[in-house]
Amino acid sequence: MKEKKWLIAGCFLLVCVILAAVVLLTRPNSEVQEPEPTAVPEVTETAEETEETKDVLAAIRENGKLTIAMEGVWQPWTYHDETGALTGFDVEVGTLIAEGLGVEPEFVETAWDGILAGVDSGRFDIACNGVGYTEERAQSYNFSTPYVYTEMVLVVAENNQEINAIEDLTGKKTANSPNSTYAMRAEAAGAEVTYVDTLGETMEMLQMGRVDATLNDKDSVDSYLAEHPEAKIRIAAVVAGEPVAVPMQKGEGTETLKAEIDRILEEARQNGKLAELSVKYFGADLTNR
């Protein structure tokens, strides 16, 4: 009987414990609250960081090099001498610019039709290859101030007496690099332009009778005639060409680069270095209009 009483008392105590636990677990806790999640601040670029990201000059100086596009086959602008070394007026101008920026020049040789496309895409920082400034090109690229003013010549076969002015090109065939200012001038005059990569190809086609004429840089044609005095061609006319400048990618990101290049070129103009290079490669000072 006594054991039975202890059993009943134990059961009663167990039930009490269970009920107390249930009450504790289900009672709302007003004192203990879950912490609110901490808001993660949104990461935004400051105006300064954005500008640094866009600034091409800052990236050039950080990399320590200036990537310069050129043909390497257009004497006296960019070509290889008898030892195979890359040289020319624009090779020295490109070196001058890189030194002024405090970096090393990295010259990349490519076909003419890839030069401006490469500048546009950002593959090249600038181009130094006798690039003529035009209003049309200025819509797609930032340009430095002009550093050379060239003349353009109309060249025909030695026995061709029909073509003596640009106006005579209507209905005729010419040869030029694609997207060059010379090709544009020929097309504007009504000529059918055959696209080639080098001046040498142009002169071969002209002497073979495959084209009637070509418009080209006077100094390049003079250099060609100096190396090929037997060439059966003649200069039919000399006209003003476009001012030569340094193209770079369009946009605010190259404004500081443009300003620095303008400063370097003006300094070289003032101290006579540009004129010295012009006389060295062209035989005359072409740095002033």
What brief labels describe this structure?
12 strands; three-stranded antiparallel β-sheet; alpha/beta; 289 residues; D-Maltodextrin-Binding Protein, domain 2; disordered N terminus
Structural class: alpha/beta
Give the count of helical stretches.
11
- Average predicted local confidence, pLDDT: 86
User: Gyration radius, to the nearest Å?
Assistant: 37 Å
From the spread of the alpha carbons, the general shape counts as globular
Main sheet attributes: strand count, strand direction, barrel closure: 3 strands, parallel
Report helical residue fraction.
40-55%
The CATH fourth-level homologous superfamily of the largest domain:
Periplasmic binding protein-like II
Level-1 CATH class name of the largest domain = Alpha Beta
Structural commentary:
This protein is an alpha/beta fold. It folds into two domains: 53-147 and 245-282, 3-Layer(aba) Sandwich (D-Maltodextrin-Binding Protein, domain 2); 150-242, 3-Layer(aba) Sandwich (D-Maltodextrin-Binding Protein, domain 2). It has eleven helices and twelve strands. The strands form five sheets. Strands 4-1-5 form a three-stranded parallel β-sheet. Strands 10-7-11 form a three-stranded antiparallel β-sheet, with helices on both faces. A two-stranded antiparallel ribbon has the order 2-3. A hairpin with a 5-residue loop joins strand 2 and strand 3. Helix 4 crosses helix 10 (255-270). The chain is globular, with a radius of gyration of 37 Å. Mean pLDDT is 86; it is low at 1-9, 21-26, 28-35 and 37-53.
